[in-house]
């Protein structure tokens, strides 16, 4: 044996930050303001939670459900559960009850840690979760009078109170499971992806590279992306490892509150889906200069494609660099980043156009991962920026199968078939097209709803745009655009169509433009096109060209 | 199996850069100027070299010696040898013949790739290297008439000429050996450290973090640190992985040439030992403004402690951030970095004093490694910035033992005993004191030669300072300072001593100050204190207080 065979365990990474930056703060939003504790406090409380969990019968390999907003106790749960060798089972608080029921029973979670304000969502499940022996309730201001009929309820603080720090993390195999995340499946039951210590360790190392998001110990990280959504994009682990200041919004996710929190805490790096940043932009535009966001340097956005007009606005109005990432539950989740370092910083950047061209792409695969595009027979397509194909991915933080739910059809050899569609350019940058199901198939040709949305978003007065397919007897499908306007803005259908015709061919233009108050979002904050299509169907919507003259 | 079991092989990392930045250049200094090839060329040539090596009988596990300056063919050798599963055996061109002889025979290298200008150093070994079957000679301008009596000589270009690209890298165990580096041992025979794919893979991931050296694909990397010295600090792998522009000085390492090359190629990041940067400073000071170093943003320095006055000069005169790293052959070699990102860049940094205080430290352990200090009974010492102890290190890129040369005395449990001495402060930053053998033990107290050197270097007119111990009948040892002055500078012994007395107690002051033309360097470019002491002994040097009145 030439080199040490140190197993790649998360406990070895994440205790580092508390030693390096013991006094740096973990900040959680509350009704009245914020709660604050240091990294050292967080370490001690994570150790105490581990003692309490072990005392409650949680051992290596046991699943512990966590049903919480982003906050300090959620972070402690990440730390304690993973490092003690148990399995952190993230529960998406926005899932419908029948899905929650299914995944808790499928995972066989023994204990659930839940925020008190979320208990009403769990209450309907009482009596239907035979594996759950205990519920630990994290209580924030105003929820002191919580109650639940789930078994063994105990206040989180009472639960950890008897214990002191100094939990000895057990030796584990580096391929031991660490967490379990279920995809919010668009078809069929949710499917679980079981992360392992080694896979998350490597993912954490990769995401701290300069060309990923440039994450540094000196960053103040604002985690808008929910920690119940694919490991919070790995930020909890990375921020603990580096010892960053961490700011979390808990349940206070209105755009106004997010902006205020970023300003008050001098946030330097924020993460979330594009719809969040569209809403934040709306708040900033409504009262220019009202909030000091001068500390904010980078926004990491992913989950769906970043509209170029959005990146341009943040760059020009706030001097903020937007970084697009692409990934999914099956890829831990970070797979590609649009970022190349642009000189010393946005303000002095010499090539904003080059930057804006790059951020419109999903970017280059993180070192260690491989990304490929293929045709319908799985033949690799050229990396010429032109040809569009199904995106495949493989590497040490890509799943090999689903948890107790084999899906051989989701893999091709050792490649994961992502269900996303894209192009790869001659510098190996991935450019996302639509997810297959979001492409509009018209007259045997494909129309990209993302391209149409991005173009419509660049029109002044447009806050959000969503393009969906509607059935058509002749053309198979035709696109329809739903548009949310900025407060006070006015636009006519013809103005939108004329703007589209600057770039798109006649057959690619939407058949209709509907002005709406809002676009429904999925549990992970993306535009919910399935819901949009369902709403249109329910309201009896018909394409203009198919409407019968009234009798 | 939940996540993919992708083995951590270097071939999976380093081909990435050529796909991302195929047209980016690899630049090698020549007598007349530079040789240039693209990343794509380098990939193709590495594949051709692998074909040729396999044809010459090199298989998985075989050692291939490389006796070369930093240049494109050396880089190709790194790539081909490692990825084909053979073992890259770095030969330090500055080693004495008897050490070379020993390590080539100890490693049982089958083939050697050597620069033509270095053949005279190998010639004396002809007939004494039974394992070596073939020598491949890399020929630069002016050395076309090379000859050697080593077996099977062939020109490098002729060797790879018959082959085309498309070598299929074999599947390997991730713990398969990759390279073999011998320490330039201060006592006893050189000892080999055998690196593995997994250990170098993890080392490469860690060194690309923002808080390590902020390495980015957009950097132009100038590798002054020799690639025959501990994997060139890992830069060859990292630069290939990211697709950086790489600049290498080959044998042209005069400070004047280094400065010119940095200016001509718009280098952004340079790596080398402190003595290099002292010499470069001297060149810059001699002709201020003669060379445009405005692109240079960061210098990574290690191998010995970085004098604070040197870091201050680069910061103030050139706006360059210096980053101190600490490590050794046994740690692959990077273990700690002084860097925390200082805002958007040096020019706009708000806290230069804070920066200068940090760069004087060896820094924080890279994520994955653990560093500890202990007393003589191996009891851990407090991290209070005060207590000095032996430095221990462990982690996945620390060696577990030496190659065919077990040294149980060098380990304590799974900790490597580094032989270095230091303090750890309350933010877990390592501060180097001397190597144990370089401390001066006077009257039962320790005097730090590094502290004295750093202080003397801050005196205007001083170019280099070296403090060594001399035996003393009463005090055991007493310090003596050797000083090299800047060109044209004049200083008296008393001025140096008076300057030292501003900070040090009377008993800590050097007993003598000797003005010398130069300080001898080790094969890795550090001050060779063993040679300094030997020179003093040979010249019959006696401490002033011990000199007899002449008879």
Mean pLDDT of chain A: 92
> Are there runs of chain A of 5+ residues with pLDDT below 50, and where?
342-350
N-to-C CA distance of chain A = 86 Å
Radius of gyration of chain A: 24 Å
Structural class determined from secondary elements of chain A: alpha/beta
Neighbour order of strands in the largest sheet of chain A:
2-1-11-10-12-13-14-15-16
Plain-language structure description:
Two copies of one chain form a homodimer. With 551 residues, chain A is α/β, with parallel strands linked by helices. Chain A has 16 helices and 26 strands. In chain A, the strands form five sheets. Chain A has a nine-stranded mixed β-sheet, with helices on both faces. Chain A has a seven-stranded mixed β-sheet with strand order 7-6-5-3-4-8-9, sandwiched between helices. In chain A, strand 24 and strand 25 (476-485) form a beta hairpin. At the A-B interface, helix 2, strand 9, helix 8 and strand 16 of A face helix 2, strand 9, helix 8 and strand 16 of B.
């Amino acid at each position: 044996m030439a080199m040490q065979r140190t197993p790649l365990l998360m406990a070895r990474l994440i205790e580092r930050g508390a030693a390096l930056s013991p006094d740096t703060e973990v900040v959680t939003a509350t009704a009245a303001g914020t709660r604050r504790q240091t990294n050292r406090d967080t370490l001690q409380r994570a150790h105490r939670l581990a003692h309490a969990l072990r005392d409650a019968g949680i051992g290596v390999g046991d699943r512990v459900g966590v049903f919480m907003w982003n906050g300090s106790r959620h972070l402690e749960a990440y730390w304690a559960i993973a490092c003690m060798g148990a399995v952190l089972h993230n529960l998406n608080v926005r899932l419908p009850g029948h899905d929650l029921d299914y995944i808790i029973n499928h995972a066989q979670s023994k204990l659930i840690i839940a925020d008190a304000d979320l208990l009403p969502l769990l209450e309907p499940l009482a009596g239907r979760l035979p594996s759950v022996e205990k519920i630990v309730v994290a209580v924030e201001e105003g929820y002191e009078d919580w109650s639940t009929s789930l078994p063994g309820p105990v206040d989180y603080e009472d639960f950890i109170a008897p214990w002191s720090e100094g939990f000895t993390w057990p030796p584990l195999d580096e391929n031991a499971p660490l967490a379990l995340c279920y995809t919010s499946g668009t078809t069929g039951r949710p499917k679980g992806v079981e992360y392992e210590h080694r896979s998350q360790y490597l993912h954490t190392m990769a995401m701290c590279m300069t060309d990923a998001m440039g994450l540094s110990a000196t960053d103040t990280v604002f985690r808008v992306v929910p920690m119940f959504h694919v490991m919070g994009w790995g930020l909890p682990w990375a921020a603990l490892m580096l010892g960053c200041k961490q700011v979390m919004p808990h349940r206070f996710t209105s755009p106004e509150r997010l902006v205020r929190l970023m300003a008050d805490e001098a946030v330097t790096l924020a993460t979330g889906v594009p719809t969040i940043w569209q809403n934040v932009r709306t708040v900033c535009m409504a009262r220019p200069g009202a909030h000091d966001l001068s500390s904010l340097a980078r926004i990491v956005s992913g989950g769906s494609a970043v509209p170029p007009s959005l990146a341009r606005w943040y760059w020009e109005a706030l001097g903020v660099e937007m970084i697009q990432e692409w990934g999914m539950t099956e890829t831990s989740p970070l797979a590609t980043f649009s970022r190349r370092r642009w000189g010393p910083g946005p303000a002095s950047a010499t090539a904003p156009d080059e930057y804006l061209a790059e951020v419109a792409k999903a970017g280059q695969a993180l070192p260690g991962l491989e990304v490929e595009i293929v045709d319908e027979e799985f033949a690799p397509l050229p990396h010429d920026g032109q040809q569009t194909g199904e995106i495949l991915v493989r590497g040490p933080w890509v799943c090999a199968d689903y948890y107790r739910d084999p899906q051989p059809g989701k893999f091709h050899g050792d490649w994961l078939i992502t269900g996303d569609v894209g192009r790869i350019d001659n510098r190996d940058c991935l450019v996302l097209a639509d997810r297959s199901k979001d492409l509009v198939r018209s007259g045997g040709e494909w129309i990209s709803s993302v391209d149409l949305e991005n173009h419509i978003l660049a029109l002044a007065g447009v806050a959000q745009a969503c393009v969906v397919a509607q059935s058509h007897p002749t053309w198979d499908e035709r696109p329809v655009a739903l548009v949310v306007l900025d407060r006070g803005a006015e636009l006519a259908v013809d103005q939108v169509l004329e703007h589209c015709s600057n770039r798109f061919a006649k057959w690619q233009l939407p058949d209709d433009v509907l002005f709406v108050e809002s676009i429904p979002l999925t549990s992970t904050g993306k535009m919910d096109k399935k819901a949009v299509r369902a709403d249109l169907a329910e309201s009896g919507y018909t394409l203009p060209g198919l409407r019968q003259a009234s009798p």
